[in-house]
Design goal:
mainly alpha, 0% strand, disordered C terminus
Length: 395
């Protein structure tokens, strides 16, 4: 976390330097011209900042949550600081090397080889290197999809084969080594979408049944997938009959139900930024006076509902609009870059159904950095007339 925080600070300093010395580079207006993502990011952060006026959360919680969503600025800063295709390739290449190192480290842990740099408390039992198996599973899924879609652009004589091999290692790591159920779902969805894109358009309807077929096949092929899916069924059944939130699935269901209650109370403007913990504790005390309060800056393990609690139903729509704005910016990209970026957005949307994947540290930083890099790479590969229309015309 220290390294991540220092890196984000350096990125902010670099972005500020570009803004200050814009005369020596392309102006930020020109670099971002025609893109929807920067506008969506600014609108989202402005909405959270404005909700400081009515938030029910303590000021520390409110400001803490606002800072957490501030990581969205990294997407815009990368679009500003990466000036051309060459820089974008170097940046994404460095990212890929780091992710390959992470993936290889997980396989080394699985093979019981010494990995002295592994700092996670789950390293020896769940083969997660730096964070949790939940975060690492989603990261490996997205990186595997990235390698697959950009395989034709991998450098070197054996670049294409190496990219395909890494994609294979990534998905097998998720299904046979790690145990994150969210990552299993994300991987199944990403593989299904990748297969659909490879098929002729008249056969793409198989996307309706393909995830189910993959899930069924993995249920019998992977004990990790089978055990986790069976556990979900058991935990949901137990929660339905006992209404006690003592299991992972039961806790999530209880959190989601409480989030819906909070949204129902404040559907128009929400309870304000950082209000989840305050609202959860209040609603739980109404049901159980002996409830022990959770700490501030918590989340309901569901990004859509978290935005709904803080900003009401418009907040949920705002999060969806943010995702669609990024998707819109991929439509002019070359196919490989577009599919890589769209796969990342799909993964973020799916992961956000089960976790607060944008709000959380580490996994949220991963998504923001990767989306910034991919949008920069795709945008810098556009023809000049499309990427940078004449300034006067844009104004």
């Amino acid at each position: 976390m220290v390294i991540i925080s220092i890196s984000k600070l350096l990125l902010v300093v670099l972005g500020a330097s570009v803004l200050i010395f814009a005369r020596r580079f392309q102006t930020p207006v020109r670099l971002l011209n025609g893109m929807s993502t920067p506008i969506a990011v600014i609108v989202a952060l402005a909405a959270f900042a404005m909700s400081l006026l009515w938030t029910v959360a303590p000021l520390d919680d409110a400001l803490g949550s606002l800072v957490k969503y501030g990581k969205l600025l990294m997407v815009v800063l990368l679009l500003i600081t990466i000036r051309d295709r060459r820089e974008a390739i170097y940046a994404l290449g460095s990212f890929a090397v780091a992710q390959t190192f992470l993936l290889a480290s997980s396989w080394m842990l699985f093979a019981h080889l010494p990995v002295p740099w592994a700092t996670s408390h789950m390293a020896l039992t769940e083969y997660a290197v730096f964070s949790s198996y939940l975060d690492q599973g989603i990261i490996s899924s997205v990186f595997a999809a990235l390698c697959w879609h950009l395989r034709e652009h991998a450098p070197g004589r054996f670049g294409r084969k190496l990219a395909i091999f890494i994609a294979f290692l990534g998905f097998t790591n998720v299904f046979f080594v790690l145990m994150g159920r969210s990552a299993h779902v994300v991987s199944i969805v990403l593989i299904s979408v990748a297969i659909m894109w490879e098929l002729p358009k008249k056969y793409r309807f198989v996307i309706v049944v393909l995830p189910l077929l993959l899930a069924a096949g993995l249920f019998f092929a992977s004990s990790k997938v089978r055990d986790r899916l069976t556990l979900v069924q058991t935990e949901v059944s137990a929660y339905s009959t006992q209404k006690t939130a003592i299991t992972s699935s039961g806790i999530r269901l209880d959190l989601w139900n409480t989030a819906l209650q909070s949204i129902d109370e404040h559907p128009v403007a929400g309870s304000g930024v950082g209000s989840w913990s305050t609202q959860f504790n209040r609603l739980q005390h109404e049901k159980n006076p002996a409830h022990i309060d959770i700490a501030g800056n918590g989340n309901p393990h569901q990004e859509f509902l978290l935005w709904g609690v803080q900003l009401g139903i418009p907040g949920i729509l705002l999060f969806i609009a943010l995702l669609f704005s990024m998707w819109h910016d991929t439509l002019k990209m070359a196919t490989p870059y577009a599919r890589a970026t769209q796969s990342t957005l799909i993964a973020l949307a799916v992961a956000s159904l089960f976790n607060s994947s944008l709000y959380d540290a580490q996994i949220g930083d991963f998504f923001c950095i990767l989306l910034g890099l991919l949008l920069a790479l795709g945008h810098k590969n556009l023809p000049e007339s499309i990427a940078h229309p004449p300034y006067q015309q844009a104004v």
